[in-house]
From TrEMBL, chain B:
Principal location: membrane
Residue ranges of every copy of the ABC transmembrane type-1 domain listed in the record: 92-305
Entry GO CC: plasma membrane
Membrane-topology descriptor: Multi-pass membrane protein
Transmembrane segments: 37-62, 96-117, 129-150, 179-201, 226-247, 289-308
Lineage start: Bacteria, Bacillati, Actinomycetota, Actinomycetes, Micrococcales
Superkingdom to which the source organism belongs: Bacteria
Species, as recorded: Pseudarthrobacter equi
Keyword terms, alphabetized: Cell membrane, Membrane, Transmembrane, Transmembrane helix, Transport
Pfam family, one: BPD_transp_1
Protein name as it appears in the record: Carbohydrate ABC transporter membrane protein 1, CUT1 family
CDD domains recorded: TM_PBP2
Compartment(s) where it occurs, according to its Swiss-Prot or TrEMBL record: Cell membrane
Length: 434, 317
């Protein structure tokens, strides 16, 4: 890191400093600050999300700028799709942002190509309070490339207004099995006369099979950054959706036209499905978007299989570019985002439960009822003994795409779950071992 | 563009009409040349920005460039890997089906509408604009989004079919239908070939038709033996442009599938896959090699067309 900084102190920086100094001189506000600091540093900070997230983030940045005179933060946000594209282009063009949000599945794609800074090498970032289990999710070969923005996990949301009207009892989520969920979903479809499908979860997102694999005693991604899930588990994941569809609990092929998107665009909000799997930090968004009373449940199968499937996962990760011209200031910003209670008071649980326990504690009184529900569930889950979880390997984005593609093939009956599972393992292993 | 110039007898006539003096002629030609280059200027300026990436991509095609670290020369490895890449073959399949179905249909529709408009309708300018409009919009993100809704499960198309008791398929999400939805979208954007056809049709001297009707030729025979041969250079030009354009299709597939080429790779256009390789899998060397393969494919098809054109394109000079 030091080396980069030294060689990076080139004509460009010198000119930049000179121009900045000139600018300050012109505007007559050079002040009495120490000239050694080189005037104002501008950090580029990028993340994905919606305008609500941006509003909260902007408020936190303002606090940061007040606490750190001489550093201004220029932030940009986008939807996750275009964000990923733009990020790749900026890194490729040698003009990466200083501090950036990174998806779990992309972290090692970047880190193992030497584009991210080792956060442990930045003394401005205090990692004292951060649990090792959280740090390990951004770590490879002893180096820390990504730090969780917060933790979350997946859960089942059910529109209780619909199930009450249909007269269907929601099973106890502490002990329910996957069979219980299937039975429940099928009953909802039957009792609503087919107007509402009981289950509407997304088969093609990897968080589902990751949880199932853990319940069955496997690690989807292993400690040595390989694929650890068995063919049988993937087959089971697909087969379950096929069976549930045949039973009527899950909508017919082609029903879901838009996967992902905001809570307001969800099928749960449209009222055409009664339950869905979500990242539970979004619970509030769903409860606000849906007409009716939404309840947050644990995933099925947590106590009925080999072991617990749950883990506290990074909602996303913060990284610093290896080529950042201001690694010191970037680390200060990252430290603020992680350890500053005043900053967290603005962003709350927008990116998951803060990973510094003191910070998490400090915001509890400021949370809305729905966010409190989320935080409480997160805490309750972690009270139990959970098996360890690991960082996503390089190639994980290809794995995600492969799952999506095969899920569609299975949905339209073009391939059997068994064949899909076989293909999934072949393609995923090829991508990861490349 | 040279095809068009050949077709325009008006231009030739105006040149010939000038005084035969050598000097005058020379000035006129020079002036013509100057305006010619002036019109080409934007292209030359654009070229300045593309020439370097052009050769860079040629070099990168033979490397393992991953966007972040220095490229290493790997010889023909990328091209070899392509032959064993099932998704590459899938993307070629999608692109070829799309091209060979949608180009003939959209040319036929464009010619048909041009023929109708050429019959001297009142308010021709308005009709022309209205029919041209989709061409301007067809490649845009907004229209592809609109298309998603029109062909969506609760969209206009399935609602209409529902009136007749037909349960329409999931046009957008069913892999068996998703590509056809995009083909319809492409046919719908027949405006630019139509405008060019219309210009061509207006150049056909009416005296040929007058002479033919005196000889008792039917409408069809007039179309078959006068119109088609005389506008064949225009047909040829449109064919080439449409072929090149549809081989390079990207936006429609990207927006319709949210960038995945789904459902189940059924809209994985060649360029979309190239993009995925370059920017989501970071295999820029491979992606560059793919770009050059596409260039070769387009060059081959254009060459075939030029050779074949000798047998059916008629130049009236």
């Amino acid at each position: 890191m030091k080396k980069t900084a030294t060689t990076g102190f080139s004509r460009r920086i010198f000119l930049g400093a000179a121009v900045t100094a000139a600018g300050l001189g012109l505007s007559g506000c050079a002040g009495g600050g120490s000239p050694a600091a080189g005037g104002n540093v501008e950090l580029n900070f990028v993340y994905w999300g919606d305008s609500n997230r941006a509003k909260m983030t902007d408020a936190a940045i303002k606090v940061f700028e007040e606490k750190n005179p001489g550093i201004t933060v220029k932030s940009e946000y986008q939807d996750s799709g275009p964000y990923a594209d733009k990020l790749a282009t900026r890194f490729a063009g040698g003009n990466p942002p200083d501090v950036l949000a990174m998806a779990n599945r992309s972290l090692l794609e970047y880190a193992q190509r030497g584009t991210l800074a080792d956060l442990k090498g930045l003394p401005e970032l205090n990692l004292e309070k951060i649990p090792a289990t959280v740090q390990s999710r951004g770590e490879v070969d002893g180096k820390l490339y990504g730090l969780a923005t917060g933790v979350t996990t997946i859960g089942m949301v059910v529109n209780k207004t619909i199930t009450d009207q249909a007269g269907v009892t929601i099973p106890d989520d502490k002990t329910w099995s996957w069979e219980d969920y299937a039975k429940f979903a099928t009953e909802v479809t039957q009792k609503t006369g087919g107007k509402v499908y009981g289950a509407g979860y997304d088969v093609s997102t990897e968080t589902g099979p990751i949880l199932l694999a853990r319940q069955r005693g496997e690690d989807f991604y292993t400690e040595d950054n390989k694929l650890g899930v068995s063919e049988d588990t993937i087959r089971e994941w697909f087969q379950y959706s096929v069976d549930l569809r045949n039973a009527g609990g899950y909508p017919p092929a082609g029903f879901f036209e838009q996967i992902g998107g905001s809570p307001a665009q969800s099928y749960l909000a449209k009222g055409t499905v009664a339950s869905q799997i979500i990242p539970i930090n979004n619970f509030r968004g769903y409860n606000e978007a849906v007409q009716g009373d939404v309840v947050l449940l644990r995933m099925p199968g947590e106590t009925t299989d080999k072991r617990r499937g749950y883990s506290a996962d990074p909602t996303m990760l913060w990284s610093i570019a290896a080529k950042s011209k201001h690694p010191k200031e970037a680390a200060k910003l990252l430290d603020f985002l992680t350890n500053d209670a005043d900053g967290a008071a603005e962003t709350l649980t927008q990116r998951g439960v803060p990973i510094n326990p003191d910070v998490a504690e400090s915001i509890t009184s400021k949370l809305s009822a729905d966010d409190t529900t989320f935080v409480n569930m997160m805490a309750a889950i972690q009270e139990d003994d959970l098996p360890p979880a690991y960082v996503y390997p390089k190639g994980a984005s290809v794995v995600a795409d492969t799952l999506k593609q095969l899920a569609t093939e299975v949905e339209f009956g073009r391939i059997t779950p068994a064949d899909a599972a076989k293909t999934f393992l072949e393609k995923s292993n090829a991508a990861i071992n490349k | 563009m040279s095809v068009l110039t050949k077709q325009a007898p008006g231009a030739a006539a105006s040149l010939a009409a000038g005084p035969p003096g050598r000097r005058k002629r020379g000035t006129a030609r020079r002036r013509n040349q100057r305006s010619g280059y002036l019109f080409l200027l934007p292209w030359f300026l654009g070229m300045l920005f593309t020439i370097i990436p052009f050769f860079a991509s040629l070099y990168l095609a033979f490397t393992d460039y991953n966007l972040f670290t220095e490229p290493n020369f790997v010889g023909l490895a990328n091209f070899q890997a392509m032959t064993e890449d099932p998704r590459l073959w899938q993307s070629l399949k999608v692109t070829f089906i799309y091209t060979f179905v949608s180009v003939p249909i959209s040319l036929a529709v464009a010619l048909l509408i041009a023929l109708v408009l050429n019959r001297g309708l009142q308010g021709l300018a308005i009709y022309r604009s209205v029919y041209y409009l989709p061409s301007l919009l067809g490649g845009s993100v907004a229209i592809v989004m609109l298309w998603r809704y029109i062909f969506g499960n609760e969209g206009i198309v399935n609602s209409f079919l529902g009136l007749f008791g037909i349960a329409g398929p999931a046009w957008v999400t069913d892999p068996d239908f998703s590509l056809s939805t995009l083909i319809v979208l492409n046919v719908w954007t027949f405006g630019s070939p139509m405008v060019i056809f219309l210009a061509g049709l207006r150049q056909v001297p009416t005296m040929y038709y007058e002479a033919a009707s005196i000889d008792g030729a039917s409408r069809w025979r007039q179309f078959r033996n006068i119109t088609i041969p005389l506008i064949s250079p225009i047909i040829f030009f449109n064919l080439i442009m449409q072929l090149i354009g549809s081989f390079q299709t990207f936006t429609q597939g990207y927006v319709m599938s949210g960038g995945t080429g789904g459902p189940a790779d059924s809209t994985l256009f060649y360029n979309l896959y190239l993009y995925q390789k370059g920017f989501t899998e970071f295999e820029m060397g491979y992606a560059s090699a793919m770009a050059w393969l596409l260039l070769m494919i387009i060059a081959i098809f254009t060459a075939i067309n030029f050779i074949a054109s000798k047998f059916w394109v008629f130049y009236d000079n």
